[in-house]
C-alpha cells in the first residue's frame, strides 16, 4: 500500500513536468501548425542558460527566471529567423508536408551540437533550492519532498497564468484566432506574425521550466546526452497527443496520465521500460481514440 | 517496352558492379572500408526514399527498423548458427514484419503524428534490448559473418569481404527498388502521395498501398541494419542512436527524397562528412569539443540548409531549372 | 528523353563513387607502420566526452605529458613518441570505428591503453588486432579474459584482473568486517561477471546483490532503486564494484536517502576526483575503503609520485594530480621502456617479443610486480587497501602499504614480499 502511494506521488510529479513540455508543444502547434521536435533541445539549452546563472549568482531563484527568459528569447529567435524562412521556402514539392518536421529535427541536432561544443559533453550540475529528501510518516519516507511540492506548485501557478492570459486578455484571443484562421485574423486587425512569435516564446518559457525541474528532480546532473531530455522529447509529444494537441487542459491531463502510467510500469513491471511504456500508450491512444482524450473529433491528418 | 527498360537497367547495374569490383582492388584498405559503409548507407537511404519520397509517409525512426534487422540477424547467427546468407534473409523478413505492423498504425496517421510515433519508436526500441537477456544488454551481441573464403587468396582482407557483400547487397536492393518504383505499386504510391482522395476515387486501395510501402521499406531497412552490424561486428543499443536516424534522413534529403537516382549523393556525403570535419578541425586547430561535435553540427546544418534551399534535392532542383530554361528558350 | 536523363544521372553517380574511392593511392610501405626515422606513433581510444568520461578524459594529457618529457630528453633512440587520441564515448560501435581510423588512417604502430571491457572485446572481434599482428599495449580494463593469449595474441593486460581484485577484497572483508551484513552493487556485464567469479572463488556470500546496466542509460535513472534495495536488506558493508559515474551516483543518492553503510569502492570506480566533481561531498567518501596498486597520489615522498606530479603539473598547471593521472603516466613509462627494449628499429613483432622477454624486469611505479613472460600477458597481480581521508584522498592504513597478491584462478591470496627497485635515473627508460 505504501509503495502504491509512493508510485502515485512519483507519477504525479513527473507528470506535471511532462505537462509543461506538452504545453510547449501545444502552444507551438496552435500558433504555427508545426510539431516542434526541437522543443526538448530548446528546453535543454534553457537549462544550460539557467545553469550559467546559477554559477554566477548561486541562487536557484535567479536561475529559474533567467532560464525562462532565455528560453523565450531562444524560441522567439528560432521562430523569427528560421520558421518564417521555412514556411516561405518549402511550400511546394513532394515533401512540402513533411519539410517542417524534418527541419525541426535538424534544429534539434544543431542545438545539441552547439550545446556540446560550448559546454562540453560531461555532466554539469544544478542544485534545487529545497531538499529532495522525502517527508517522513513514522519510520517510513514518502516519495514526496519539499522539492516535489515546489515542482507541483510551480506547474500549477504557470498553468493558471497561461489560462488567465488565454481567457481574459485579447492576446489569448488573438493567438486562438491566428491559429484557427490566420487570414481572417489578419483581416480583422490581428498582428499574426507577432502573435506567432509570442506563442513560440510562451512555449520556450514553459519548456525552460520543464527542463529546470526535470533536472533538479533527478540527481541534478545533466549533459547534452542526458536521458532525461530524450524522455522529455517523447513524453512532451505523447502527452500533447493524448490531450488532443489543441488544448492546454488536455496537455495537462495527458502529462499526468503519462506520468502515472510510466511510474507504475517502472515500479511494477520493469525498470528498463521507461521509453517503451509511453510508446505503447501512444499507439493505444492513436488507434482507439485518435482525437485524444480531450480533443474534439478531428481526423489526425495535418 | 516495360521489360526492355528494366533489363537495360539490369545491364547498367552489372556494369556499375564491375567498376566497383575493379576500384575495390586498387584502393587501400581505408577506402575499401568506407566503400562498405557507403553501401550500407545506399541501402538504408533507398529505403527512406521509397517510403517518404514516393509513398509520402515520413519516418523519423528508421534507425529502429535497422535495429530490428540487425538484432534478428545477429541472434540467428549467434544463437542458432544460421548461415550468413540466411541471416540476411531473416533480417529482411523480421524488419518487414515489424514494418507491416507499424504500417497498419501508420496508414491511419499522417504528417506530424506519424513523425512523432516513429521518433518515439527510434528512441524507445533499442532500450528494449536491456529487457531480454538474449539481446545482450548494453554490451550487445556479436555479429560475425566470418572470414573471406580462402580461395580469394591471402591478401583478400576482411574489409574487402565486407565491401563485396555490401556492394552486392546494395546493387541488388537498389535495382529491386528502382523496378518496384516503376511498377504499378510505385505509381499507386505516387498517386496517393499527391492526392489521396483522387487516388482512392480512381480505385487505388490507398491504405493497403501505404502498408505495402511501409513493409517493403522496412525490409530494405532490415537489410541495411544487418549490413551495418556486419561492418561494425557488434549489435548493441548504442549502435542505433537517434543520431543514426538523423543521419539517414539527412542522407535521404540530400539525395533528393523523391529521386532514387540521387541515392549515392547522400551516402557518399554521409561518409565524407567526418573526413571533411577532420580536415577542417586540423587545419583550423579548433578545440577538442568542437572537433568531436563538428560532424554532428555539419549533418544538422546540411539537413536544415537542404530543407530550406533545395527541399527536393539537388537532382530534382537541377531538373526543374533545366526544364524551366528549356521552356523559356522555346518561347 | 527522360530515360536518357536518367542514364546520365547514373553515370554522374558512378563517377562520384569511383572518384571518392580512388582519391588516395596506396602509399609506399615504410620499414614498419607507424615508425619513421623521427617518430613512433601510438593510438588510444577512450571516452573523452559523455557520461562515462569524467576522470578517464585526463589520461591522454597524462600520457602525453610523460611522452613529451621523454621526447625533451632525446626520445627513444632519437625517435619521438606521439599519441593519437580518439573519443569513443564508451560506446563499443564507436570504439570499433575509431580503432579502424587509428589503424587504417593514422597508421599507428600500436594501440595504447584502449579503455573498457566491452569496447576491447568488440575491437578484438571486428578489427582483430591479433590477426593483423598489431600490439595492444596495456588495455585499460581488468577483465580477466584478455589474458587468454590464444584468443588475444597481441594484447597485454597491465591492471590486476577484476577476479584478483574481488578475491583480495574478500580477504580484506574477512579480516576487517567479519560477520557484518554484506551488499554488492555491480555492473551487469563481463566486468561484473569477473567480480562475481572472484567473490565466489573466495567463498564470500552477500546478503544482497544489485546489478545495474552498463552504458549511458542505467546509472542515471535508477540509483534510487539501488539504494532502496541495499537499504532494505540492512547491509552494513556495501561494495560498489562499478564505473566512476555509477559509484558517484550511488554515493550521492545514498547521502540524500540518509543511508551510510561502510563503503568499499572498487579500483575502477574509486576515483575521488570524479566522485567529488559529480557533486558528492568529500565527507561522504570519508572512511570509505578503497584499493590501489600504485602509491598514494599524496605520497610525495615516493620518488615516482614526486617526478610524475612534477612533470604533469608543469604541462597541465590547472589540473589535479590524481590516481587516473598517476596510472596513465605509469603506463606511458612502461610503454617507453617496452619500445626501447624493442631494439634500434622497433617493429610490431619485436615490440611484442621485447615485452614477453624482458617485461618482467621493466621498472614501474606500482607496489606490485609485473608478470609478463612468453606464456603470460598479465601485468600486475595485487592491491593494497586503504581509507579515504576527510579530503577524499586514499591513504594506506597507518601509513604502511600492505600489499596482497593472487591470480585469476584458484590460487590463494598472499601477503606480497615484493620490493620495488629504485627508479631509473631521471625516470627515463634505460
From TrEMBL, chain C:
Tell me which PROSITE patterns the record gives: TAT
Q: Where is the Leucine-binding protein domain?
A: 39-389
What keywords appear on the UniProt entry?
Signal
Look up keyword Methyltransferase and say if it applies: no
Which Pfam families does the entry mention?
A: Peripla_BP_6
In terms of PANTHER family, this protein maps to: BLR6548 PROTEIN
- Name of protein: Unannotated protein
Amino acid at each position: 500500500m505504501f509503495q502504491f502511494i509512493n508510485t502515485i506521488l512519483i507519477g504525479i510529479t513527473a507528470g506535471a513536468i511532462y505537462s509543461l513540455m506538452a504545453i510547449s508543444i501545444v502552444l507551438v502547434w496552435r500558433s504555427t501548425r508545426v510539431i516542434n521536435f526541437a522543443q526538448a533541445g530548446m528546453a535543454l539549452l534553457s537549462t544550460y542558460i539557467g545553469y550559467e546563472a546559477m554559477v554566477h549568482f548561486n541562487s536557484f531563484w535567479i536561475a529559474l527566471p533567467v532560464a525562462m527568459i532565455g528560453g523565450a528569447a531562444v524560441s522567439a529567435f528560432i521562430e523569427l529567423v528560421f520558421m518564417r524562412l521555412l514556411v516561405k521556402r518549402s511550400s511546394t514539392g513532394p515533401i512540402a508536408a513533411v519539410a517542417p518536421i524534418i527541419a525541426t529535427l535538424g534544429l534539434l541536432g544543431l542545438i545539441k551540437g552547439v550545446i556540446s561544443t560550448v559546454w562540453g559533453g560531461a555532466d554539469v550540475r544544478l542544485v534545487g533550492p529545497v531538499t529532495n529528501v522525502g517527508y517522513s510518516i513514522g519510520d517510513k519516507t514518502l516519495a514526496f519532498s519539499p522539492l516535489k511540492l515546489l515542482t507541483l506548485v510551480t506547474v500549477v501557478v504557470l498553468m493558471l497564468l497561461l489560462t488567465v492570459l488565454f481567457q481574459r486578455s485579447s492576446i489569448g484571443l488573438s493567438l486562438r484566432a491566428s491559429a484557427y484562421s490566420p487570414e481572417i485574423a489578419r483581416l480583422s486587425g490581428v498582428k499574426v506574425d507577432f502573435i506567432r512569435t509570442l506563442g513560440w516564446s510562451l512555449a520556450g518559457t514553459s519548456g525552460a521550466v520543464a527542463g529546470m525541474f526535470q533536472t533538479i528532480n533527478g540527481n541534478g546532473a545533466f549533459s547534452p546526452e542526458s536521458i532525461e531530455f530524450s524522455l522529455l522529447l517523447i513524453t512532451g509529444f505523447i502527452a500533447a497527443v493524448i490531450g488532443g494537441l489543441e488544448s492546454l487542459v488536455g496537455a495537462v491531463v495527458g502529462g499526468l496520465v503519462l506520468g502515472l502510467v510510466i511510474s507504475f510500469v517502472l515500479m511494477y513491471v520493469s525498470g528498463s521500460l521507461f521509453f517503451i511504456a509511453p510508446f505503447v500508450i501512444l499507439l493505444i491512444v492513436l488507434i482507439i481514440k485518435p482525437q485524444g482524450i480531450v480533443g474534439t473529433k478531428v481526423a489526425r491528418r495535418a | 517496352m516495360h521489360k526492355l527498360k528494366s533489363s537495360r537497367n539490369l545491364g547498367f547495374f552489372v556494369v556499375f558492379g564491375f567498376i566497383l569490383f575493379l576500384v575495390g582492388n586498387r584502393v587501400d584498405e581505408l577506402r575499401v572500408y568506407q566503400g562498405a559503409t557507403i553501401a550500407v548507407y545506399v541501402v538504408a537511404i533507398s529505403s527512406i526514399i521509397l517510403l517518404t519520397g514516393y509513398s509520402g509517409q515520413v519516418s523519423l525512426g528508421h534507425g529502429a527498423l535497422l535495429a530490428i534487422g540487425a538484432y534478428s540477424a545477429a541472434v540467428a547467427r549467434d544463437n542458432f548458427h544460421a548461415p550468413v546468407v540466411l541471416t540476411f534473409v531473416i533480417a529482411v523478413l523480421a524488419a518487414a514484419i515489424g514494418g507491416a505492423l507499424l504500417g497498419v498504425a501508420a496508414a491511419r496517421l499522417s504528417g506530424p503524428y506519424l513523425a512523432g510515433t516513429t521518433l518515439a519508436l527510434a528512441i524507445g526500441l533499442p532500450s528494449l534490448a536491456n529487457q531480454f537477456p538474449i539481446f545482450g544488454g548494453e554490451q550487445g551481441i556479436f555479429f560475425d559473418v566470418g572470414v573471406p573464403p580462402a580461395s580469394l587468396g591471402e591478401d583478400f582482407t576482411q574489409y574487402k569481404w565486407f565491401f563485396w557483400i555490401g556492394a552486392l547487397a546494395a546493387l541488388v536492393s537498389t535495382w529491386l527498388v528502382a523496378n518496384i518504383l516503376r511498377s504499378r505499386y510505385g505509381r499507386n504510391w505516387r498517386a496517393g502521395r499527391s492526392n489521396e482522395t483522387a487516388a482512392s476515387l480512381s480505385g487505388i486501395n490507398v491504405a493497403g498501398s501505404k502498408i505495402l510501402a511501409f513493409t517493403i521499406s522496412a525490409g530494405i531497412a532490415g537489410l541495411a541494419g544487418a549490413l551495418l552490424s556486419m561492418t561494425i561486428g557488434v549489435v548493441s543499443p548504442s549502435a542505433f542512436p537517434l543520431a543514426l536516424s538523423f543521419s539517414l534522413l539527412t542522407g535521404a534529403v540530400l539525395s533528393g527524397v523523391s529521386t532514387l537516382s540521387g541515392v549515392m549523393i547522400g551516402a557518399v556525403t554521409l561518409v565524407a562528412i567526418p573526413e571533411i570535419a577532420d580536415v577542417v578541425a586540423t587545419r583550423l586547430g579548433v578545440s577538442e569539443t568542437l572537433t568531436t561535435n563538428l560532424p554532428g553540427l555539419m549533418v544538422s546544418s546540411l539537413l536544415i540548409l537542404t530543407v530550406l534551399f533545395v527541399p527536393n534535392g539537388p537532382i530534382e532542383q537541377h531538373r526543374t531549372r533545366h526544364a524551366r530554361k528549356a521552356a523559356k528558350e522555346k518561347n | 528523353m527522360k530515360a536518357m536523363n536518367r542514364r546520365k544521372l547514373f553515370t554522374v553517380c558512378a563517377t562520384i563513387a569511383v572518384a571518392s574511392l580512388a582519391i588516395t593511392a596506396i602509399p609506399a610501405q615504410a620499414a614498419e607502420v607507424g615508425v619513421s626515422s623521427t617518430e613512433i606513433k601510438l593510438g588510444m581510444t577512450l571516452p573523452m566526452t559523455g557520461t562515462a568520461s569524467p576522470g578517464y578524459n585526463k589520461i591522454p594529457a597524462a600520457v602525453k605529458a610523460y611522452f613529451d618529457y621523454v621526447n625533451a630528453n632525446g626520445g627513444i633512440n632519437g625517435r619521438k613518441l606521439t599519441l593519437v587520441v580518439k573519443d569513443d564515448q564508451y560506446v563499443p560501435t564507436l570504439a570499433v570505428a575509431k580503432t579502424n581510423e587509428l589503424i587504417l588512417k593514422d597508421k599507428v604502430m600500436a594501440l595504447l591503453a584502449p579503455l573498457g571491457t566491452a569496447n576491447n572485446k568488440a575491437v578484438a572481434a571486428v578489427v582483430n588486432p591479433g590477426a593483423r599482428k598489431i600490439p595492444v599495449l596495456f588495455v585499460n580494463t581488468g577483465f580477466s579474459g584478455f589474458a587468454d593469449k590464444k584468443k588475444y595474441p597481441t594484447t597485454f593486460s597491465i591492471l590486476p584482473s577484476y577476479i584478483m581484485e574481488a578475491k583480495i577484497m574478500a580477504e580484506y572483508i574477512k579480516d576487517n568486517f567479519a560477520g557484518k551484513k554484506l551488499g554488492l552493487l555491480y555492473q551487469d556485464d563481463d566486468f561484473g561477471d569477473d567480480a562475481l567469479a572472484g567473490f565466489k572463488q573466495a567463498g564470500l556470500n552477500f546478503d544482497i546483490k544489485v546489478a545495474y546496466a552498463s552504458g549511458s542509460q542505467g546509472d542515471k535513472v535508477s540509483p534510487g532503486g539501488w539504494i532502496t534495495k541495499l537499504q532494505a536488506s540492512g547491509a552494513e558493508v556495501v561494495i560498489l564494484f562499478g564505473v566512476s559515474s555509477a559509484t558517484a551516483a550511488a554515493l550521492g543518492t545514498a547521502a540524500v536517502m540518509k543511508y551510510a553503510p561502510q563503503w568499499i569502492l572498487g579500483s575502477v570506480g574509486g576515483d575521488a576526483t570524479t566522485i567529488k566533481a559529480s557533486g558528492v561531498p568529500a565527507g561522504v567518501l570519508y572512511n570509505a575503503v578503497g584499493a590501489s596498486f600504485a602509491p598514494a597520489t599524496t605520497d610525495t615522498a615516493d620518488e615516482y609520485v614526486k617526478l610524475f606530479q612534477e612533470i604533469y603539473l608543469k604541462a597541465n598547471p590547472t589540473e589535479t594530480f590524481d590516481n587516473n593521472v598517476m596510472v596513465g603516466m605509469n603506463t606511458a613509462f612502461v610503454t617507453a621502456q617496452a619500445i626501447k627494449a624493442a631494439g634500434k628499429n622497433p617493429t610490431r613483432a619485436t615490440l611484442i617479443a621485447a615485452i614477453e622477454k624482458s617485461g618482467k624486469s621493466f621498472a614501474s611505479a606500482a607496489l606490485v610486480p609485473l608478470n609478463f613472460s612468453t606464456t603470460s600477458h598479465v601485468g600486475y597481480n595485487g592491491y593494497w587497501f586503504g581509507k579515504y581521508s576527510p579530503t577524499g584522498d586514499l591513504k594506506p592504513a597507518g601509513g604502511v602499504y600492505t600489499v596482497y597478491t593472487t591470480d585469476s584462478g584458484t590460487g590463494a591470496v598472499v601477503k606480497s614480499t615484493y620490493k620495488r627497485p629504485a627508479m631509473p635515473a631521471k625516470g627515463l627508460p634505460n
